[in-house]
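Hey, weird one. I pasted the Mechanosensitive ion channel protein sequence into the form twice and got a warning about non-standard characters only the second time. First submission, copied straight from the form history:
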Amino acid sequence: MDWNHLLTPFSKDFFLELGTSAGIFIFVLLFGYVIGDRIVPRLSGILFQNKIQSSHPLYKAGRRIVRLLFFLLASYLFLRFLKLSENVGDFLFLSFRIAAIILLTFSLVRLFSAVFETYSEMTEGLLSSASIISNVIRITLFAIGVLLILQSLGISVAPILGALGVGGLAVALGLQPTLSNLFSGLSILMGKQLKKGDYVRLQGDGLEGYVQDITWRSTTIRRFNNSTIIVPNSVMSSSVFTNFDLPSKELSITIESGVAYRSDLEKVESIAVETAKEVLKQFYKTGTDKEVSFTYQRFGENSIDFKITLPSFEFTDQFTIKHEYIKRIHSRFQKEGIELRFQTKKEI
């Protein structure tokens, strides 16, 4: 048996090449980790003005993809500095290319999803973080990754795209309702008519609540009792609905009442406005910029009627604010000897 022939691959030159390649691999990898920890914070500070923390998904995704790029570069240089035979080299580089495409695809999916969510938060839901957008991003990136892998394997992509084009027409005809819901959902989001977290009211008794999600098929709305309304996107886009969060979340709460004719109207107004500000301060600790509006409306049969308007910055707050204000104004008027009266409407 020729032992020298068996030991040829493990010669001194081989170990020298292996050591050089491993040294380059470790150096580039460590350099990438150091640069990654410096590049990402700087980019974060420039692009987002230090508004995201190191625990934010976008920060983590950015650092992960920078490290991955240096890992792939280190792996490529490791293989390049090894003097491999043509067959072995071709096999290893092909395997490396496919693995790199897979790893980059998954990393880009995380990165783009994090970028989209961060952009939605910073623009107050200009494009909401609805799952329909995230799913479109994922499907698009995964499709590109698959096509790149097929092309790396020597499989022509053009016939596949042509077949998908012809077959896609038949599939589109069969999935017309599904595609209608998909494009209707995208139309709702792009038109800024609706976003996740908005409070909406549809036509029909009890059809109102917070928008939980807009998927590729339907819009999910959570009601006060935690039950769920599921509306197909095609129906949602063609329906008349009220969005209480557009153009802003601020609403006006109007309360009407009346006092006896002998009441001191200046005192009534002062107490009503003062009580309203106390209630608002209880709900909104930072205070409100909008003033409380108080106006006398008419001389009624038994009372002088007035109307007071309070701001509310969340749709559901109005009920609790009105409840608390009525209790407090009633108690305060009783202490001050002011008689509340209500005009009785005559039936015709």
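That's the output from the first submission. The warning seems to come from a hidden character in my clipboard, not from the data itself. The longest helix spans residues 12-48.
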